[in-house]
Give the backbone structure.
Amino acid sequence: MKTLEQQKHAASAWFRELRDRLCAVLENLEDERSESPLPAGRFRRTPWRREGGGGGEMSVMKGRVFEKVGVNISTVHGEFSEQFRKEIPGAETDPRFWASGISLVAHPCSPLVPPVHMNTRMVVVRGGSEPVAPFADSPIPRSWFGGGADLNAIYPDAADTESFHNALKEACDAFDAAYYPKFKTWCDEYFLIKHRGEPRGQGGIFYDYLQNGWERDFAFTRAVGEAFLSAYPPLVRRHMHASWSEEQRRFQLLKRGRYVEFNLLYDRGTRFGLMTGGNPEAILMSLPPEVAWD
Amino acid sequence: MKTLEQQKHAASAWFRELRDRLCAVLENLEDERSESPLPAGRFRRTPWRREGGGGGEMSVMKGRVFEKVGVNISTVHGEFSEQFRKEIPGAETDPRFWASGISLVAHPCSPLVPPVHMNTRMVVVRGGSEPVAPFADSPIPRSWFGGGADLNAIYPDAADTESFHNALKEACDAFDAAYYPKFKTWCDEYFLIKHRGEPRGQGGIFYDYLQNGWERDFAFTRAVGEAFLSAYPPLVRRHMHASWSEEQRRFQLLKRGRYVEFNLLYDRGTRFGLMTGGNPEAILMSLPPEVAWD
């Protein structure tokens, strides 16, 4: 059995490996749209340090398939601020945290190619110590995995939605038949734009506080990454050669406005990151390059 | 002395009158830019009803000086939701509220013409009753005025900033020499984009919970409206005939992104309105028509 330090190392190494593979696959798609007069895009990587400890690497590509796609990995540690300790179970006794993860947001040029979001992470609190009094009997975890992936097509395509969900369902079913229905519902609830009463997209899965044993949860998190890696590129390939109208472009920009509304008003990661002094460039990498409101 | 009902009536009638005068002045500016091949813009008015009581009128113009300018008036009443009662002093004993106000946000076409925001309102809580136990000795107001105006130039111009501030300072000074320095500081603190450590614009004034006697506060709120009405159009006129570059347009779109970040992450009115089931179209009328993020 791995020590906590070995677990942390294995998780952050996986997020880095997944980042490399995702970037390679997305650059391949850029090469494949050879009919475009624009050059194929390539990722530019920018490392960043976090003041309180750790840091990450942003990879951003602005190309001919992807108007903007960002893949961020980070491994950070430190102590929760006074203000946040009250909101994190157990943090008032021991405010230490460690977190490592990957986050991808793709905004394609074409309104016909679906935007997508994927994010997985491992979180350790209280220095990874076993529950201590007064939490000895409580379900407060010492470390867990969380994440998910969701599709945000401007013009939903039933076949795309089905194949995206099927890939995630297969990854889930290999671990627990209860995962997919539970994580799909969680995703639908989380990505609801409440003030509009509109879903952000076509859903996918969302999970958090997963703690069924580190080996098992890590394997599941890797399976989610693999499912995403195999499920998304075919959806891009299927639509990226089609031309689009000005009206479709306009509708795309308006839908992106909804995406911005969700991210700034509701997204926990965005708000948490900005309110705790995270790197705004890395956190807001998820925002679309061009947006409109009516 | 006016009864509370007469006060409410007088305030909401003023906000309507100010709306009419603002729309007329802004339409005049549209006429004045006669060198544009585009037609002069005109406001389109849309009434809306609020489910819990009251409603308002949105006026939106998309023209050749103003890419989008919205002027909203509303007079609403009802009860604070269970969730919000805890945050409003005195609302747990009596959750009733009444509020009337005007809000203007202008996003000019030209990056050289400064965007602007102005908003004033009268608020009544607890049915306007005098403080009651356990609040009999507390400073919880039964009604108050709030508002302000701030300039958000893409390319700040010292003369513009000075004349805008001077007009507001004059309005303040006629009432209390302490108002302008206090309300200017409040504005600077409120319109800080915290995660960027950047001010939203060149400031102005911001005031709230003003309760120095209804007649006096209402007169001050009218003076703020008049100051805005006389101060902003000359700034538009001074710059609206100049041409601009693609680079300036790009910078304008990026600055608008900061504006969106502020409004969705921090603006109390926006968050409060959306979280309490307000009309999203009216609340988000403040968002710019086209925006970009790097």
Notes: The interface with chain B takes residues 194-196, 253, 257, 260-261, 264-265, 271, 274-275, 277-278, 280, 283-284, 287-294 of chain A (CB under 8 Å). The radius of gyration of chain A is 19 Å.
